[in-house]
Every structure is written in structure tokens, then in C-alpha cells.
Specification:
Elements (H helix, E strand, L loop, with lengths): L1 H9 L12 H5 L3 H14 L30 H10 L14 H17 L20 H11 L4 H4 L4
Length: 158
Amino acid sequence: MRELDYSIKIKKSLCPGLDVVTYSMLKHSPTSLRSRLLHLLNVLTPTTGEPPPPLKTSLIIPFAKPNKTLDDEGRMEGIIEDIIGDKNQIYWFRRERSTMDCVGLLTSYAYRAFSSGKIVVAIFVDIKKAYHGVGLNILYNTCVVDAHIPYKLCNLVY
């Protein structure tokens, strides 16, 4: 029970999963409920050390930059480090917009798509060195019109 309580305690209540149960709800739940939850987790979690099949269905397709190959030294390590790392970066240099806003929005879109049986595709664009040289209106129109990315997602950029 201590491990469960500690795990709940250190989590920030940012975005609920498919069950729409937030960490703050779990933090304030009675011990009897958390005990039942722990029992369910122990019963449902496989003892093989492998994640359950629903967690193994993601397909990640990396795209190489022009004049680069995916075999270049260190190409994927930096991306993986950014995904896994706990970085407190500002999202798109906009006041009161953090990386977690973007992650929360992406997670929300993904959960809605999964719950309705749709396929989810996430595209990450690196414009770090081109930020000041990219016209945001051109990028926005390209995203909405040419790439058919939902305008709500593009509004985070524009």
C-alpha cells in the first residue's frame, strides 16, 4: 500500500486517462478504495515483466531531416532523451503555455480516438533553429490546409 500511496502522491493531476480518474481524486479517496485498487492492479498486472498487449500497440515511424539518415550517430538518442526526460520547457515560447499543455492536449486527442476505435498518428516537427525564420501564418496555413491538422491543435502555434 505504501508504494501505491507514494506513486499517487508524487504525480501531478494534469490529465486523466480513459477512466477519467485524476490523481487528486485518488489522493483524497478512502484507504478502503485504494486497497481495492491495489488488489485489482496486482491481479490484472502480468507477472511476466512484459507490458499488457494494449500498451504494445503503438507504432513510431521516424522521419529523417533532409540530407540526414536515421543511421546517423546519436540521431534517435536525443529524441528518446527528450521524450523520457523530465524537462520543464516553455511550449512555443508563449506565456502560460507549458510543455505539459501540449502533452495534455495530445493525450486527450489520443484517448478520444482510441475510445472510438480510430487510429492515432502523432507528428513532431523540429523547428528549433528555424523558429525566427518561419512565418507563423504560413506554418499555420500549411498545417490546417495542406496537412489537414485540426485547427484547434494548430491554434497552439498561432
